[in-house]
Each structure stands twice: as C-alpha cells, then as structure tokens.
Amino acid sequence: MVARRAGARGRLSAMQFLSPFDPGIRAATLLLLLLLSSLLLTGLSAAAGECRSEHCSREYERSRERLQLVERPEPNTCRLLGAFSDCMRKTKRACRGHLYFHTNMGIVERTFRKYDCRRILAEAAAAPPVTRAPPPPPPPTVPAPLDDSVCSYRAAAAAEPVVCSLFGDPHVRTFGGEFQTCRLLGAWPLLDNAYLAAQVTNSRVGSDECATAPTKLTVIVKHNEPCTGQLTYEARANESLPRAFVDGAVSSGARSQHSAAVTTLVPGLHVAITVRHINATLEIRRVAGHLSFSARLPRELAEQPEARRGLQLCSRGCLQRERVDYRRVLSSVGRVDAVHAGRPVVLTAELVTDMCRQNRVIGPYLDACVFDALSTGKTAFMEAAREAQRDLERLLPQALRQLPNRTRLGSPVGGAPGRPAAAAPLLAAAAALWVLLRR
Ligand SMILES: *[C@@H]1O[C@H](CO)[C@@H](O)[C@H](O)[C@H]1NC(C)=O
Ligand SMILES: *[C@@H]1O[C@H](CO)[C@@H](O)[C@H](O)[C@H]1NC(C)=O
Ligand SMILES: *[C@@H]1O[C@H](CO)[C@@H](O)[C@H](O)[C@H]1NC(C)=O
C-alpha cells in the first residue's frame, strides 16, 4: 500500500524517492510503518548493516545535482536511472523486507518504462558522436603561466600529513589526534600560519544553554606571490555553500596553475579548498543545518611553536574551561525529550547508540554521534559525526585505522576502558522507533 501511494506520487510529479532524511512524515504512513515494523524486524536485523539502497538513492541524487539534470525522457536521465537500478539490484539480497528498497525499486523501474528508456538509450548509442567546434584561441594578452613546479609544494623532509576537524556540538580533533568536545560560543581561530587562516563562529543550538554548533566559517588563503593573492572564503550554516571565494573567483588563476582553488563536491553542501603551494586541503560541509570543517596540512606547517599557537583550536584544542567531559555526561544521561521532523520523541542513550551504530561510526565518532543527538535533541545531528569520520577516512586513512574499533559508548575519562561490543539485542521498540525516525 505504501509502495503504491509513493508510486502514484512518482507518476504525478518528477520522481521523489523516499529518503531517510526526508523530513516530511505523513500520519498515515507513520501508522502503517508502526504496523509493519514488527513484520520488518526480521528483515531489519538480518540486513541492518548490508542493505545499500540508501547509498544508491544518494548516489543518484548526487549525480543528478552534479549534472543539474531535470528528469525527463532523454539519454542522461535514462543512464542515471539505469545506474540506479543496477546499484539497487546489486544490493537486492541484503534488502529483503526493506521498505525503502522495495518502494524505490518500484519507482525506478516504472519511471524507466514510462520514459521508454530502453529505446532512448539504444538510439543514443546508435547516433554519431557530436563534433564540437575547436575552442577559440586564448587572447594574446594573458601572461604565460608559471612553470608548474613554481607553485608546487616541496617538503624539506618527509611531508607527513596531519588532520584537524571540527564538527557537531562542536567536537575538535586536533592536529595531534586528540578528540575534545567543547562549549564554544562566538568566534574562535582554528588555524593561523603564514599561508592560511581559518576561523569558526559557534552559536547556540535550540534552547539548551550548553549546546553550540558552528554557524559560520571563514578561510583566508594569504597573499603569496607568485602563487596567489589573498582569497577569502565564507560559509554560513543558513545558506548554500558558495562555489567561489568572496570575490567570485574559484581559483588563484591560470597563471599560477590555479594553486589555490575552491572545488564543489556536492553543490551547496560540500566544498574543498586546495592550496597546492603548501599541499593543503580544507573541506567544509553543511550537515544538519550546521557547518563542519576538516583540514589536512603537512605537519611542518601545522605545528606551531607554543608561543605562536594562541587560541588555535586545531593546535591546542579548546581551553580547559570550555571542555565538556562528554563521556561523563553520557554516562549519566536519562531520557531526553527530543523533536524529530516536528514530532516529539523520547531518546535514550541506548536507543541513540543503536542508531549511531547503524551509521557505522566508531570510537570517538560514536560518542560524538550519541552526545550530539542527546544534547541537541536533534537526530539529524548524527550525520555530522558520520560525515566527519568519512572525511578522516579519506584525508588520513591511517588515522582512522588507528582508532579503537569500538561500537559502544566509551567509559568516562578515568573509568575502565570500553570493552569491545557484544552485539546488543535490537529491542522491538527501539527498532520500531528507528524505522520511524529514519522517515
Ligand atoms: C601532499 O599530501 C598528500 C597527502 O598527504 C601526499 O600524499 C603527497 O605526497 C603530498 N605531496 C607532496 C609534494 O608532499
Ligand atoms: C544567515 O544569517 C546571517 C547572520 O546570522 C544573515 O545575515 C543572513 O541574511 C542569513 N541568510 C539567510 C539566507 O537567511
Ligand atoms: C570495524 O570492524 C568491523 C567489523 O570487524 C568492520 O566491518 C569495520 O570496517 C571496522 N571499521 C573500521 C573503521 O575499521
């Protein structure tokens, strides 16, 4: 029934896939989900880790955004639909009894047929390739580009990379690899060296006195002839991430071989700023209505003498008085009245831990995930920890491998070290609520 309703929607407008992050909840669907949840339990617990249908929809949406594609019967749409369908088919076995999977699979297949994609793709494959006019020659006034090596980073010794990140209700991972949870209000420097400066502004989240999260990030690539003039990038939590620096440029220009550049990874949600002459990569994301930040620099540039560290969060973490012992907070937390998609829910540490485990966060990222959901009452915040863990995995895979692969909450600092998780039984009530929350 649910599938048919969604299917009808799919026919009326452009396709709308059921997304786990879709805030819209319909009362009827909710009731049905409640009734169905017990039936789904077997499927859920068997396939909880493996069903990748959510990944397939996200990939589809990402490609669609990247190509700025409006769905209609034409080859590009059909190719994406085909890829989506293949992706879903690969995960079919793991998704047995998975509502999102069956609904989305139905919609994809119907749309593929409705657009007559088989014919469109066959015709596109038969058509001769379009020949393009050669690009016009560049105007003669442009100065010759610098030699590629001029703005390339040359390390004195082995250039070991280090990573700093800031995410959620804010958690800092310092260049030294220490995780902290901080109560930061107002503007704080993240890093500041001869080439690069970054600053974050934190504001309160909801009504809780203690919960704060990043709402503004400013990055300054400092003037460094001949590789770049000064460039400023500004991100605000309430706006799409800009595709360019404040002056409208996306890079320091062809002459410097674009040594400093902004690259959009997911439009409005994820950008990277690369500074080639110091081999630095900064990534900014908008997650759950807030910002997160990661930076990878060669260690020799990231490390600052004690006297020059100032209050830089990436080098020295937050001040003692701003630190929150989140493990202690978590060990004493009871039930938290929260709001999910405009509806009241009751969260407990156990339930949220289960939800975070499904997001595959481990060690300190698991703690952060649970802490953020409980301290802000916003379940969407759990995404911040997951994305931060993914950023670390991409920017510095060896650092993620060194983390304890722990899937239950850490003990309070000074307490017994967390033991590896015994697979916790998924309670019926928890699973039902999990299904509801994922709507
Ligand atoms: C730049 O950093 C990356 C990532 O750490 C590293 O693989 C690469 O070797 C570095 N390049 C130079 C020129 O140091
Ligand atoms: C976002 O917030 C800033 C200040 O907090 C404000 O100046 C700006 O107009 C806001 N933008 C939108 C789109 O609401
Ligand atoms: C943690 O362990 C699980 C199960 O052994 C494995 O699937 C997962 O990839 C590990 N995660 C990391 C980040 O090492």
Automatic annotation (TrEMBL):
<keyword id="KW-0336">GPI-anchor</keyword>
<dbReference type="Pfam" id="PF06535">
    <property type="entry name" value="RGM_N"/>
</dbReference>
<feature type="signal peptide">
    <location>
        <begin position="1"/>
        <end position="47"/>
    </location>
</feature>
<keyword id="KW-0472">Membrane</keyword>
<dbReference type="InterPro" id="IPR009496">
    <property type="entry name" value="RGM_C"/>
</dbReference>
<feature type="domain" description="Repulsive guidance molecule C-terminal">
    <location>
        <begin position="163"/>
        <end position="397"/>
    </location>
</feature>
<dbReference type="GO" id="GO:0098552">
    <property type="term" value="C:side of membrane"/>
</dbReference>
<dbReference type="GO" id="GO:0015026">
    <property type="term" value="F:coreceptor activity"/>
</dbReference>
<protein>
    <submittedName>
        <fullName>Repulsive guidance molecule A</fullName>
    </submittedName>
</protein>
<feature type="domain" description="Repulsive guidance molecule N-terminal">
    <location>
        <begin position="51"/>
        <end position="118"/>
    </location>
</feature>
<keyword id="KW-1003">Cell membrane</keyword>
<dbReference type="GO" id="GO:0005886">
    <property type="term" value="C:plasma membrane"/>
</dbReference>
<dbReference type="GO" id="GO:0030509">
    <property type="term" value="P:BMP signaling pathway"/>
</dbReference>
<keyword id="KW-0325">Glycoprotein</keyword>
<dbReference type="InterPro" id="IPR010536">
    <property type="entry name" value="RGM_N"/>
</dbReference>
<comment type="similarity">
    <text>Belongs to the repulsive guidance molecule (RGM) family.</text>
</comment>
<keyword id="KW-0732">Signal</keyword>
<dbReference type="Pfam" id="PF06534">
    <property type="entry name" value="RGM_C"/>
</dbReference>
<keyword id="KW-0449">Lipoprotein</keyword>
<dbReference type="InterPro" id="IPR040287">
    <property type="entry name" value="RGM"/>
</dbReference>
